[in-house]
Amino acid sequence: MADLAKLVEEISALTLLEAAELVKALENKLGVSAAAPVAMIGAAPAAVEAEPEEEQTEFTVVLKDFGPKKIEVIKVVRQITNLGLKEAKELVEGAPSNVVEAVSKEVAEDTKAKLEAAGAVVELK
């Protein structure tokens, strides 16, 4: 039996042209083709799409921009997070920033709605 490590070492040292010639020689000797069958290539994406996606259970509400009503947004952030005035102001002015993290979909959507009503631009992640 051939020493596989030695074969790997020798094949690794080949140039691309030499490797292509080796492939052709092996195809002729063994009567096979190194090209992937077209049916297999076409089936691969379908298999990937068939996997069901896991539904996201935890969301993060990201304040992208406070919009034209910064003070209103700060008030809403204070209500939602129970932060002090200074901390809420820093969070809003530091946009983009996370307002709440790892919350349920309902809480995230409610938070997003309140912030958008105050004029903020918000994204759920």
Give a brief outline of the structure:
The protein has 125 residues and is of the alpha+beta class. The protein has helices spanning 4-12, 16-30, 38-50, 70-81, 85-93, 105-117, and strands at 59-65, 97-103, 121-124.
Write the layout of secondary structure elements.
Elements (H helix, E strand, L loop, with lengths): L3 H9 L3 H15 L7 H13 L8 E7 L4 H12 L3 H9 L3 E7 L1 H13 L3 E4 L1
* Percentage of β-strand residues: 5-15%
Tell me roughly what share of residues is in helical segments.
55-70%
CA distance, first residue to last residue: 56 Å
CATH superfamily of the largest domain: Ribosomal protein L7/L12, C-terminal domain/Adaptor protein ClpS
Oligomer: single chain
**Roughly how many Å is the radius of gyration?**
29 Å
Q: Based on the coordinates given, report the CATH architecture of the largest domain.
A: 2-Layer Sandwich
Mean pLDDT: 82
Main sheet makeup:
3 strands, antiparallel
Order of helices and strands: HHHEHHEHE
CATH topology of the largest domain: Ribosomal Protein L30, Chain: A
Number of strands: 3
Count every helix, treating DSSP H or I runs of 4 or more residues as helices.
6
Could you say how many structural domains there are in total?
2
Q: List low-pLDDT spans.
A: none
> If strands are numbered along the chain, what order do they take across the biggest sheet?
2-1-3
